[in-house]
Amino acid sequence: MADLSAFPITAKWPVSDPTRIQLFSYPTPNGQKVSCLLEETGLPYEAHRVTLADADVRSPEFLSLSPNNKIPAIIDPDGPGGAPLGLFESGAILIYLAEKAGMFLGATAADRARVIQWVMWQMGGLGPMLGQMGYFVKFAGKDIEDPRPRERFVGEARRLLGVLDGALEGREWVAGDYSIADMAIGPWLGTLDFYGAKPLVGWDDLRNVPGYVDRFFERPAAQAARNIPPR
User: Fold this and answer.
1) Is 0.85 surpassed by the pTM of this model?
2) How would you list the strands of the sheet with 21-25, edge to edge?
3) Are 96 and 113 in a shared domain?
4) What mean pLDDT, rounded, does the chain reach?
């Protein structure tokens, strides 16, 4: 049985079953990505609730595993060579776990490249831009009188949604078969209702994205991930 006591995070979030993947997360869009994949693959895991409060994400214990103070992070007790492995960054975790499970990463090398391409698109574009838009539309940024920041991120959100809408023309999932690319993208599209931003980004003008979101959240794993770990 793996000994995870060398990971300081386990002092604040004790491990019940050290043979399972340890997930340290909260059901934000980035947290939902990894929970969704774990649910889809059936890899055994144990979820630990890490709130977004500084007492959690800026604690020495959490920073020891996730130095960027962001969820999610994992410990795999059975990492490469059988040694425990800690990882942070949701995109990296998705790729690692998909490889471990042998699922959702494409059947060929070309498929894999296309899947990772769209994961990177979400990590570098869709997620950050929608997050910034949310700040200026729903949170403290909405009170800033200068309209330019809000206009900047709303415009970029519209552009990125147009990119995705075009990529989905004639296909059910963004990179071919259902994959970690969809698990990366779907939860972030789900934020648009929360932000109340659908009219701002021209949601009703999109031909393919609305149905794509519906298909994603019809999957039991995607639904479950919205509350893993429970809020």
Assistant:
1) yes
2) 45-49, 21-25, 73-76, 85-88
3) no
4) 97
Same domain for 127 and 165? yes
> Domain of 67: which CATH number?
3.40.30.10
Whole-angstrom distance, CA of residue 99 vs CA of residue 166: 28
Question: What spatial distance separates the first Cα and last Cα of the chain, rounded to whole Å?
Answer: 30
Spatial distance between the Cα atoms of 143 and 24, rounded to a whole number of angstroms: 33
User: DSSP letters along 65-97, please?
Assistant: T-TT--S-EEEETT-GGG--EEEESHHHHHHHH
Domain residues for 178?
109-222
203 domain-assigned? yes
**Is residue 33 a contact partner of residue 22, using CB atoms and an 8 Å limit?**
no
- Tokens 């709130």 correspond to what residue? 51
What is the dihedral sign for C-alpha 14, 16, 22, 23? Answer: negative
Token pair in block for residue 163: 């990119």
pLDDT higher than 90, residue 187: yes
The span from the CA of 166 to the CA of 228, in Å, is: 31
Rounded average pLDDT over 34-50: 98
Tokens 């552009």 belong to residue: 159
Joined together, the tokens standing for residue 50 give 């890490």
